[in-house]
Amino acid sequence: MAGGGTSRIDAVVFDVGRVIVQWELRALFAKLIDDPAELDRFLAEVVTEQWHFQCDAGRPLAEMVRERQAQFPQHAALIDAYARRFLETIPGPVPGTAALIERLAARGVPLFAITNFGAEFWDMFRPTQPLFDLFGAIVVSGREKVMKPDPAIFALAAERFGHAPRAMLFIDDNQANVEAAAALGWQVHHFRDAETLERDLAGRGLI
Questions:
Q1: Which residues form a coiled coil (predicted)?
Q2: How far apart are CA 52 and CA 199, in angstroms?
């Protein structure tokens, strides 16, 4: 989904997970659980994406881990690995996106990000990513205790970034997030791959 037509864009706002970097809980736990059926069961019942999203919403990581270990004591070590080895759930960059970010930066386009990301995990992750040195403000849901697609996080971001929503292009892989931003007047791109994004950015005269 692309929207907003030919309206002027003064800044580009990226999501992070599955737009700039890959994210998959399986990438870590496939190293720790040999049996494929047990791996599927663990990811469906114990360390699930839905449970993880509590961290994105601002719940303290230590509290989440203690509670889950009490619920699944037989998996206590694996739940601890989730907290200690979270960076291994980010196996690498999404192909092509970093090059587009560098091209936008080279043209002087202001860059920002809104990410659903746990505060503790962001503190682990951010130092590993010099690409974010090209960005201005980055709104992290776990720090703000509000997640996309809540309109409040977009209002906070617009205030912090200093541009009107109609003058910003928001890029996200999640349909609900894209629709929420569009409803608030942002120009949007529903991310599928860097090649499609490149065509959209070129069509808007941004690269």
A1: none
A2: 33
Answer whether the bond into residue 93 is a cis peptide, omega within 30°.
no
Rounded CA separation 94/98 (Å): 8
Please say whether the beta carbons of 166 and 72 come within 8 A. Answer: no
Q: What is the pTM of this model?
A: 0.94
SS (H, E, C) 163-188: CCHHHEEEEECCHHHHHHHHHCCCEE
Alpha helices in 46-118 (DSSP H): 49-56, 61-71, 76-84, 97-106
Q: Three-state DSSP class for 104?
A: helix
DSSP-based three-state secondary structure for 107: coil
List pLDDT tens digits, range 2-14.
444 458 999 999 9
Block residue for tokens 């999203």: 53
Q: What is the pLDDT of residues 91-127, one digit of tens each?
A: 999 999 999 999 999 999 999 999 999 999 999 999 9
pLDDT reading at 40 higher than 70: yes
Residue whose pair of structure tokens reads 């890029």 in the numeric block: 171
Residues 94 and 108: their CA atoms lie apart, in Å, by: 23
Tokens representing 137?
A: 């403000």
CA 26 → CA 137, 153, 166, distances in Å?
30, 28, 37
Query: Rounded to the nearest 5 degrees, what angle is found at the Cα of 152, between the Cα atoms of 150 and 155?
Result: 125
What's the DSSP call for residue 190? E
Amino acid at 61: L
Look-up of token digits 């200093």:
162
